[in-house]
């Protein structure tokens, strides 16, 4: 490109990241008459092809439908009224409807992204994919973001606020000086081996299995494609595994007592990173963090996307109050309000993970204690109800 001039742009809110968090925020702002520009370093196609988790809390579904993003989730998603916890060769159903009167929806994150991207496009939203060389200044004043768009043109956006919805490798998160933030980490000595397989469904509901050979999860995608995971070593190289070796792991971990996982050609395999992370506070000056940029959870509780959407809902209400009545109280309270739910989800994800996985080198005591824990959950209405409430999503705090 020959032109080196930087073209000036201005908007009310600049949003870094066009994942579900960034697009949902841009959509909600547009509905309230607040302008935004969304910048994304990946292409639309790259995001659409990334395989992510697939469980939506009822509140996430409500927000997609009620805010007019799409009702495709209701037509093409599957409502799940419970899950199965499987251990010692037996399945125990956790009935969400009976316990807390709620359900979740199986609807892959890819479809959430496609629905949001299509809605933003139909509404004329300013979403720029494949941008590069992003530089951010002045987040304590009027944030400025310089970037190069897909055609090579350089721009500079000035805005009232900057939102870092730029994922687990967030650039925005790093703008907060060390003295102004705390980072909380927890590493786990295992990871998940995830596959997509061409096979019919093995079960109507998701099966979370604890076995002496390690954890396994039987999830689903469509009538003909299934999503499954098993606990593996974090350094595992998925490409070296044959289909037969993969199915052997599932047979060992979930088959028995009349149940057998339905097998078929493995069409995708990958090792998923596994850690817990929080950066607090989720605000620095006029920059707000939302979603994975501020926190990641292990996938066991299926909370990642739902937390991101909840951050955005809270942040939208705060920005809307600021623009409609000039009050900053909700913006000032954003971080605390968002983190309240983040830490509940951190605990739940950690708890589900520790209850269901085998720790390398665990003692006999630890193994027996874990079975006692599972028995406490499945044999008690109160124990099960905590799982059901957390899995389907805590009610929004007033
Ligand atoms: C998935 O279907 O990808 C999935 C479902 C539940 C989880 C994690 C992943 O806890």
Keywords:
single chain; 398 residues; alpha+beta; 7-stranded mixed beta sheet; 21 strands; binds P-hydroxybenzoic acid
Describe the overall structure.
- The chain has eleven helices and 21 strands.
- With 398 residues, the chain is of the alpha+beta class.
- The strands form four sheets. Strands 1, 2, 8, 9, 10, 11, 19 and 20 form an eight-stranded mixed β-sheet that branches. Strands 6-5-14-15-16-13-17 form a seven-stranded mixed β-sheet, with helices on both faces. A three-stranded antiparallel β-sheet has the order 3-7-4.
- The chain is globular.
- The mean pLDDT is 96.
- It starts with 5 loop residues before the first strand and ends in a 6-residue tail after the last helix.
- The structure holds P-hydroxybenzoic acid (PHB).
Q: Could you provide a short overview of the structure?
A:
This protein has about 400 residues and is α+β, with helices and mostly antiparallel strands. Helices cover about 35% and strands about 30% of the residues.
């Amino acid at each position: 490109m020959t032109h080196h001039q930087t073209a000036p742009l201005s908007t009310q809110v600049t949003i870094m990241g066009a994942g579900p968090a960034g697009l949902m925020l841009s959509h909600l702002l547009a509905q309230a008459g607040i302008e935004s520009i969304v910048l994304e370093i990946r292409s639309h196609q790259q995001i659409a092809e990334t395989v992510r988790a697939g469980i939506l809390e009822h509140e996430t579904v409500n927000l997609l439908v009620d805010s007019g993003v799409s009702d495709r989730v209701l037509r093409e998603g599957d409502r799940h009224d419970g899950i199965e916890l499987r251990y010692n060769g037996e399945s125990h159903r956790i009935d969400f409807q009976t316990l807390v009167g709620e359900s979740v929806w199986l609807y892959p994150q890819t479809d959430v992204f496609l629905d949001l991207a299509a809605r933003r496009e139909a509404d004329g939203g300013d979403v720029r994919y494949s941008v590069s060389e992003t530089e951010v200044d002045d987040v304590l004043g009027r944030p400025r973001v310089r970037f190069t768009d897909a055609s090579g043109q350089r721009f500079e956006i000035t805005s009232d606020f900057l939102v870092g919805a730029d994922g687990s490798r967030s650039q925005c998160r790093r703008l907060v000086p060390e003295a102004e933030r705390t980072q909380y980490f927890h590493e786990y000595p295992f990871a998940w081996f995830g596959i997509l397989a061409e096979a019919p469904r093995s079960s109507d509901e998701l099966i979370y299995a604890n076995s002496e050979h390690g954890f396994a999860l039987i999830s689903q995608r469509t009538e003909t494609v299934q999503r499954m995971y098993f606990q593996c070593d974090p350094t595992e190289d998925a490409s070296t595994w044959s289909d037969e070796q993969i199915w052997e792991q599932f047979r060992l971990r979930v088959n028995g007592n009349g149940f057998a996982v339905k097998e078929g050609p493995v069409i995708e395999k990958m090792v998923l990173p596994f850690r817990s992370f929080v950066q607090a506070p989720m605000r620095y000056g006029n920059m707000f963090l939302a979603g994975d940029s501020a926190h990641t959870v292990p996938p066991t509780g299926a909370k990642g996307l739902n937390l991101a959407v909840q951050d955005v809902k809270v942040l939208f209400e705060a920005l809307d109050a600021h623009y409609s009545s000039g009050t900053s109280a909700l913006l000032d309270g954003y971080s605390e309000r968002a983190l309240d739910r983040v830490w509940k989800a951190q605990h739940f994800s950690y708890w589900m993970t520790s209850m269901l996985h085998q720790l390398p080198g665990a003692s006999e005591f630890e193994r027996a204690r874990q079975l006692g824990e599972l028995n406490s959950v499945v044999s008690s209405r109160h124990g099960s109800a905590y799982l059901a409430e957390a899995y389907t999503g805590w009610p929004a705090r007033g």
